Structures are given as structure tokens and as C-alpha cells.
Task: structure prediction
Amino acid sequence: MKNNFLMPVLLIMIILSSFNCSKKMGSENVLLSDFNTIRNVVPFDKISIDDYLPAVDSLIKLTRLEIDEILANRDEPDFVNTIEALDRCGERLNRVSIIFFNLVGANTSDTMQQLAQQISPMLTEFQNDVFLNDKLFDKVRTVCQKKDQYNLNPEQQMLLDETYQSFIRQGANLNEEDKKKFREITTELSRLTLIFDDNVLNETNAFQLHITDEKDLAGLPENAVEAAALTARSKDLDGWIFTLQYPSYLPFMQYADNRDLREQMYKAYSSKGFHGNERDNRKNIKRITELRLQLANILGYETYADYVLERRMAENMQRVNAFLDELLDASMPFAKKEYNEVQEYAKSLGADFQLMRWDWAYYSEKLKKEKFNVDDEMTRPYFQLENVQKGIFELASTLYGITFKKNSKIPVYHPEVTAYEIFDRDGSFLAVLYTDFFPRDSKQGGAWATTYRNQFKIDGQNIRPHASMVFNFTKPTETKPSLLTFDQVTTFLHEFGHALHAVFSDCTYSGLSSFNVYWDFVELPSQIMENFAEQKEWLDKIAVHYKTGEPIPDTLLDNIIESRNFQSGYSFVRQITFGLNDMAWHSITSPVEVPVEVFEREAIASTELFPPVEDCLISTQFSHIFSGGYAAGYYSYKWAEVLEADAFSLFKENGVFDQATAQSFRDNILSKGATEHPLELYKRFRGREPKIDALLENRGLVEEKI
Result:
């Protein structure tokens, strides 16, 4: 994501509470001072919620003065006094904005959400003032026209190109009438995308399944029942409460024998933002996509997807659609077989009905156990969170020689958050890393990585990053520690890969550092780490029974690895469904007139395996594309899977724990940010362009590939 305020891109996902701290205003506002803290970290313990608005207001004014200095410089515009100066200015405003919006996602409150509705338009207005400033753009354009005179290195050339393109793509070439409209569109979009996210979170928190009859718990594992009882007690209720937070929702769907309750849970989960109430997102979707289309048209593009994909590896809609179609052709025959297999299996257990979506996880889990003698509840006792974390940190030490040191003196934004210092092989400081593991009402769902400070270099100093990983893992109960499913172990590895992208960054300019890369390249570092979840040598080190201390049995370990491609066709089709839905919404050439549910069903018809369920939609809760950074970009998950499967094949050729291969990946990918085109970085690591073959082979989707 782009953390440089003057060179934004749509956010991964994702940024994102309030604190009971002493009130500080005016000159005492801690956000307006240098952070006198360990490693210059955010002083979360000293920030008051009342600090944010005056800080943003003051820092916008300060950054305007920095812009005025660039404009007042009478020297001939050049790379240093214009392009570098733009990259440097607004650093404090950028940092405070990042802190605020990170916390809106990770530890929010009604007050924070209301505050976001004030701050976001302020930032949008200021951003427009910068990019729509004719005199400033004239300076940037002058430098761009004379770039051959400056003998720029590749990183400087990339910064110049990104700066110039950012101005163009943010309306610098528009006439005054269109600039005014551009301002109106971007301001409204900043408001609506926040509302969309707030609605999803509030809808998630609004539902609870309160069970008082113990027979309705049939089939559920002890861990899920105990967690539900704990939730009920926290709300001063008897019985058991299941919520739409994933650690509660998923086990219920996998194991609850009561089909009616599974249906109730599924419909509650899948109808978020689709209830005709004040949190309904259908109007927001139509307006957001209409505004994005207007923005694209003003800038000279036929569709919003055309606008977005111009600055992506995929380059255009035709290539994305061809890519998704190729994957769908390869995976759909397998997905249909898998659906039929589960349907027949369910019938063998007495199910005399057509399989519906609320049946899928339940019967799939039973089938998986029968075929491979493995399920989440068999493996969960061996994946204690603390052991998994220790194993992942040790894996990074093995590959890259880095070490982690917990530092309880570093302030954190919530008692459940832990801070670590990371040191390089030679003992030098690399980064701060925050971990935030468990769900709460104040946190968005899912998992993500972000930064509180990007890496950059200035005045001979290498300013090191502060990264954060946020999860929604199963919470500890009164009798058990946090025990992860195998999928959660994989998720941990995924977000840790993102974090390493920030940790190893070694760039000069903040706007190009860390994961500020093309959106369809950003998932490569994260997804390549997922491969280690399938390495027996590594699993054997982390998987120890939380009660007995016994290592995981070899047979169970073998079964985990053997089952890795279980229903991979279905999984592929599910992701392609999201990608096609995204591309449909962002390739419109006129506002959508039909109901949202009709539009969505037409968009994903080629991927459907189940009968449609009335009042259930993907779009009304699809935060990735309507409030995050994945608009016209959700395909990038699969795009990056092609890259990571091909890249990891080199690890397998040289040995998956080979330090030389890991060092090459660090040197050519992780440390480079966006300093060069991602395809050039990839080829430098792999020795050639990526091929799709490794992905299809790894996922067992080769036999029927057309």
C-alpha cells in the first residue's frame, strides 16, 4: 500500500479505536511532536482520541507550507527540488493519517468511526489541492520532459514516473470544470467507502445465535462450545452464543448437526449489508461504482477497470478476463466432480436433499476426515498459537538469519497486542513488528498486514519500518490456549510474508518502499510463505500437543500434507467467483440500473455450483473492492499464486530452506519495493518470466486442463 500521502494508491486491504488516555490539546498534542519513544514508535499510551482531528488539521496546514516552499523555489525545476521534495513533504501528516486509519480497522469505536467521516474528506480535499495545482504540475512535467539530463538511477526514474503518473491519474490535466467534478467525486467516494466498511462491521456485530438448549450443540467440538459459553457469559447470558466472527462462525458451519441452525447462521453471514435497514449497502454499491465510472470517464478511460489496470502487471481488462477464464476452464471440471462427490457422500449419510451452501462445510469436513483421516479438530491441539509463532519466527531466522526480541516497553494500542524488535544477521536493528491475534467487536474481520511507518532513507539515515500483523484467530478459553486450525497456520504465514516485505525494505524513497508495489505483485511475498505450511520438516518442529507435549504423529502429518489439494477445484472456483464479480462491477460503461442481486448473479453465473439463496450476496459485504484496495484487482490473488508457485519451484530445486535462494528472494524482491518494474524484479530472481504450469500442477489441476 502507498503510505506516502502525496503518492497514494487504493489501500490491501484494509486500514484501520479509541484509547482511554489523558487529553492533550494544542501544543501538547503528542501527535504534533517528535515521538520520544523506543525506536521512535507510536506513543499509543499517550494519544487521546481528541488529538486526531486537531493534529490532522494542523499537519495539513504544515504540509501546505511545505508545498508552498517547493512552488516558491525559483531555481529551474529538477529531480531534487521537485520530485524528491514532493516525496519528502507531508511525512508527518502521512504518519498520523496511517496511525488513525490503521486503528479504525484494528480497534475502532463509534467515536472513531464518526471521526473518520470528518478526517477522510479533509485529507481528500488536501490531496486534490496538491494534484490539481497547475503550478506544481508544471514543475513535475518540466522535470519529466528533461529526465534524460539528470542521469537518474532506476529507483529515481521510477519515482519520477510514479510522481508524474500520479498527477495525471489524479486529474492534473483536466480543465477547470472537470477538476471541480473530480473533487466532488473523490470527496463523495471517501465518505461512501468508509460507510460501506462501517456497515459491514456493524452488521457483523449485530447478529448472535443464542442457544439455550444443549441438544442444539450436537456435533460441535468442545473447543467451539467452550468459546460460545465464554461469549455468552461475557454478555451476562446463560447458554451459548455464536457470532459471525470467523473463529465462531466456521466451526459451527463445519460441525453443527442442526441443519436449520446452520442455515440460519449462513444466511446471517451472507446477507450482511442486505437487510433493507440503515446498514444496507446496495445503494452504496451502486453509487460507488457510478462515481468510479465517472472518475474514469473524466480521465479519459472507458471503464474504471481500464483506469486501474493501466498501472498493474496485467495491464488491461482483456488480459485479466483471459487469465480468469483460463483458470476457470482448468478448475471447473474438478469443482463439479468435488461437488458431486460431496452430494453423493451426503446421500450416503441419509441426506435426502440437494446440497446447499450451508451444507458444504459440514459434509466436506466429514468427507475429508473419511478420506484422509484428518480434520481441523484432530490437528488443532497440535497448533498452539505460541508454538506456531515461535516456529514462524525460527523459520525466518533459518532463511534470513534474523532474530526477534519481545519488548514490553514499546507502547501498544490494545492489551492483546505485543511488540517485537527484529534484528538482522549482523545484529543491526531492522524493524518493529506488532502482533494482534484475536477478534473483538472493535476489529474488522479477516487478517491483514500494514505499517505504522514505512522504511526510507534521508540525510544518510536508514529509517527502519514499523510493521503490524492483525488476525482474528481463535481466542484462548478458560481451559485451553489459543489453538489454530491448519488454515489459520497458513494465514499466519501469509501475513508474515507481507510483514517481511516491509521489514526487509531497503529503498531511498518512502513512496516506493515496502509493499508499495503494483497490486498484482503485492501478494507474492505473502503467498510464497504459505508453501512452508506443506513442508513436513517445518511442521514437525511446530506441531506439539498442547497438553501432552507429544509431537504430532507422522501419520497425521502425512495426512495433512496429502490432503492439501482436497477440493482445490472448488477453492479455485470460489476465488474466481470473487474476481469475476469484481471485474463486472468495475467494467460497467453506464450506471447499473438492475438490482444489485441481479447484477451479481449474472456476473458469477459461470462459476455457480449451488442453487442461489435469496437475500444472500457477496457484493454487499465485499469490503476488499468497495472499501479496500482491490477494486478491479481481486484477480491479483490468483495472479500472485502463479508467481509464487513458479517462484517456490526454485526453492524446491535448491532446497526449500536454502539460504542462498532466500537471500536472492530478499535481495531481488523483498528489499526492492517498487524501485523497478515488478516483472524485471521477478525475472532477476527466477531467471525467466513466470509460467502457470507450476500452480496447476501443485494444486492437482493438470489432468483435465483444456
